[in-house]
Amino acid sequence: MQPAIHLSLTRVGVGQVDMLDVETIHPSFLSPADAALWRSLAASAEGFGNPLLGPEFAQAVGKVREDARVAVIRRGGETVGFLPFHRRPGGRARPIGAPLSDYHGLVSRPDAGLRISDVLRAAEVSVFRYSGLIDPHAVFPTSPETDRTAYLIDLTGTTVEAYLEAVRAESPKKIKNYRRLDNKLDREVGAVRLVASDFSRDAFNLLIDWKREQLARTGAHDFLRADWTRELLADLFTTRSGAMQGLMINLYAGDTLVGGHFGIRQGATYHPWIASTNPEMAAWSPGQIFFLRAIAAMPGMGLTRYDLGPGHDHYKRAYGLRTVQIGEGAATAANVAGRVAHSMESVWNLAGAHGAGPVGQLRRRMDAIASTELTMTGRVRGFVEAVAARAQRGRGEHTEA
């Protein structure tokens, strides 16, 4: 897919003499100097350390999405920040790579003094919806919207043995049972082994197939159905050089693939997107066995951070002993279109769009559909499937009652 050539430069006054220049470009047109600065800014702030917040991810997404954009923000001729996003119809914007972008935000100098409302206005965006906001420099306004919790396996300043002991101490009975199942799998199926940097295309395809089956079974939106998500993952799977690379870690019993993770690695940080297990191995709790072995293997892989991201708290919290709060909500531009968008967002908020109830579930599902599906046909199909899945869950709850 060839990127659409898009270049715009907008100047917005944010004070009597302070002018903000925002150049909006496709990631493929990012200059080497700006990419290096972006990389440096991301490395300098604790919250920006995930690969999803760097220029390499934006450029990888740009290869498969024509609507990918980067707002390059300058003041007085000096570049002070970067906001990657997707330009969607109606002046709306989504985080670049959503829903795969578990973390997103405006990467800037700590002393830049930016306001997201001014940046959005200059970028000709009325509203920017986010679900995993990282904002260490307070570019976004504080709001009553619900924060989400992300989970991180962090070996910084400790040993893997000490970390695994801390995991065991949190849930001694469960961990003892998982280790028993590990031994049982080894005896009954084949020698259990973890393969890091697994380059098997067959194994990669199996992980994708199992994940899609899981999404269909649970009624979640199939984000892997879209051409661009499959192309992005396939591109990263074959990336063997550069700062950011795809990484697949798999668990085998003999020659049988039991389960694994696929995601991106940059430096000592790994962020998996796909967590899949062989449905025929469910009796051995393969996902739990995988985690214990993957943590033990981190030093050998040169990893200190295994970033699990948000969601699925029921199993992530047992292994991700460090947590990070990320924001969910929307930011609007400092103009008329932004004020209209803000009013609409307020209605959603009053209805409970950021809660755990049905309105919140519906809004998050609609966000996933809007982020993934690039055609009206795809969005309509996703909405119909969402309604059907909700009805199916409702029937199940009624039956149990």
TrEMBL record:
SUPFAM superfamilies according to UniProt: Acyl-CoA N-acyltransferases (Nat)
Alphabetized Pfam families for the sequence: Acetyltransf_6
The BioF2-like acetyltransferase domain, residue ranges: 173-317
InterPro entries: Acyl_CoA_acyltransferase, BioF2-like_GNAT_dom
Name this protein carries in UniProt: BioF2-like acetyltransferase domain-containing protein
Lineage, opening ranks: Bacteria, Pseudomonadati, Pseudomonadota, Alphaproteobacteria, Caulobacterales
